[in-house]
Specification:
By secondary structure, the protein is α+β, with helices and mostly antiparallel strands. It contains two helices and seven strands, in the order H-E-E-E-E-E-E-E-H. The mean pLDDT is 83.
C-alpha cells in the first residue's frame, strides 16, 4: 500500500512539473525601459519560436522546467529559466556595445597595459 501511495504521489508531481502553462513574456531595453518589438523568443526544449509584438510582448506555452532564449537585433541574448517564474515574465536585454565603443575599450586596454610597463 505504501508503494502504491508513493507511486501515485510521484506521478502527480511529475505531471504537475511537466504541465504546459501559458506565459506572457515582455521584452524591454535595459537602458530605456522601452519595449523591444520583433525580439525572438525560442523555447529550448522544442526550438519553437515566437516573435514579440510592437508592445514587446508575446504569449507562449511551455512547461516550468523549460528555458527560453531571447534575442533581438543589436541586443545581447539572454537565457531565461522558467522554473520559479510566474505567468508574467519580464526579460530585460542590454544593448550590444557599438563598434566605436568597442574600439574605445581596446584603446583603453592598450593604454593601461603600456602604463603598467
Amino acid at each position: 500500500m505504501k508503494k502504491l501511495i508513493f507511486f501515485f504521489v510521484f506521478i502527480v508531481c511529475f505531471v504537475a512539473l511537466h504541465a504546459q502553462k501559458n506565459y506572457a513574456v515582455k521584452v524591454s531595453d535595459s537602458k530605456t525601459g522601452e519595449a523591444i518589438a520583433g525580439a525572438t523568443i525560442k523555447i529550448k526544449s522544442n526550438n519553437q519560436t515566437v516573435i514579440t509584438s510592437t508592445g514587446g510582448t508575446a504569449v507562449l506555452q511551455t512547461s516550468s522546467d523549460d528555458s527560453l532564449v531571447v534575442t533581438a537585433k543589436d541586443y545581447i541574448s539572454q537565457e531565461v529559466i522558467m522554473l520559479g517564474q510566474g505567468t508574467a515574465v519580464s526579460v530585460v536585454l542590454a544593448p550590444k556595445p557599438k563598434e566605436k565603443e568597442k574600439e574605445k575599450e581596446k584603446v583603453k586596454a592598450v593604454t593601461r597595459s603600456k602604463n603598467k610597463n
